[in-house]
Amino acid sequence: MAKRGLGKGLQALIPEMVEEKGESLDIKIKDIHPNPYQPRKEFDQAKLSELAISIEEYGVVQPIVVTPRKKGYQIVAGERRWRAATMLGLENIPAIIKEYTEQELMEIALIENLQREDLNPIEEANAYKELMDKFDLTQEQMAKRLGKSRTAIANTLRLLTLSKDIQELIQNNQISAGHGRTLLAEGDIKKRKVLAEKIIQDKLSVRELEKLIKDSKNIKKDSKTKKGNKIFDTRLNIYLDLEENLQRALGTRVKILDKNKKGKIEIEYYSEEDLDRIYEIIVTNN
User: Fold this and answer.
1) How far apart are CA 174 and CA 234, in angstroms?
2) Are 62 and 95 in contact (CB under 8 A)?
3) Average pLDDT, the chain
4) What does the alpha-carbon distance between residue 193 and residue 199 come to, in Å, rounded to a whole number?
5) Torsion over CA of 116, 118, 122 and 124, rounded to 10 degrees?
6) Looking at the predicted structure, is the pLDDT value of residue 269 above 70?
7) Which DSSP helix (H) or strand (E) runs through 73?
8) Sequence-ordered list of residues with C-beta below 8 angstroms from that of 209, at least 6 positions apart, any chain
9) 10-118 maps to CATH 3.10.20.30
10) Helix or strand (DSSP H, E) at 223
11) Global confidence as pTM
């Protein structure tokens, strides 16, 4: 089977599935199984009920897409329609049968959800990681397959370095992915949790959170150095601004360690792929 291009989304992957006529068959719902690689873990029951009401009135207007397996069929696209039809107690559902590899199943499920913006950022990050780990893909290969930038893939994956409780806040839409990435600038895990609670309590924007972390570092450095002269304060603010600018440019945590106008710059990376990404940014800009 020829490998399909994956960078243009679901329509580029399976345009013939939507356009072909005469290949839709009624398949018994009991013979159909959900895609185990479905990245969306939570389905809105209220929306499923609405879809079920629509199907009850008009039927399944667009067939689902399935692929043959040893026992029955596995869903490629259209799991919500299948779930809604199951809720109604229907025996059959119109479906188009196509052959797909295991990797294509994972990619299509991910792309379909990304196009509809159905995934929360943590589900998206976990889907990237699962796909990369299972098929030994680099961030660059993932970016090409999904039509995204490598930086976007890397920044999404970085959310998985947050503690599980903060990931849950992002999943539940209590804080944003932008908040999560900003929290990574705070190296202390306990302080991250406190800051996350403050985001919710005070309804902090990402900008306000950035300033809060920056001001906290300012106070910490001032207390350590015990230098209150204006020259030192000015130099410190310059370094903090430089750190912030470097973090935005490189998409990772950066720390400037200064001692008597000499020092070093520490740049964090979270995988070999992340290191390659940072290297390319630095080399390309030189």
Assistant:
1) 36
2) no
3) 79
4) 10
5) -30
6) yes
7) strand 73-77
8) 179, 182, 183, 195, 199
9) no
10) helix 206-225
11) 0.54
Tokens for 114, please give them: 């990304």
Amino acid code (one letter) for 74: Q
Q: What are the residue numbers of the active site?
A: 79
The H-assigned helical ranges of 24-176 are: 45-58, 79-88, 102-115, 121-135, 139-146, 150-158, 164-171
How far apart CA 155 and CA 159 sit, in angstroms, is 7
Most confident of 109-113, 205-209, 217-221: 205-209
User: Strands, DSSP E only, in 188-244?
Assistant: none
Which residue reads 């998206």 in tokens? 124
Report phi then psi at 26, rounded to 5.
-85, 120
Tokens of 218: 């300012």
Assigned token pair, 51 = 């879809």
256 residue type, one letter: I
Helix (H) or strand (E) holding 263: strand 262-267
Q: Which residue has the tokens 């796909």?
A: 131
**Mean pLDDT in residue range 63-70:** 88
Cβ-Cβ contacts under 8 Å for 231 (sequence gap 6 or more): none
Instruction: Give the three-class secondary structure for 40.
Output: coil
- Give the relative orientation of helices 164-171 and 189-202 as an angle to the nearest 10 degrees: 20
Query: Is residue 271 packed enough to be buried (19+ CB in 10 Å), middle (13-18) or exposed (0-12)?
Result: middle
Comparing 92 with 273, the larger pLDDT belongs to 92
Every domain of the chain and the residues it spans: 10-118, 227-286
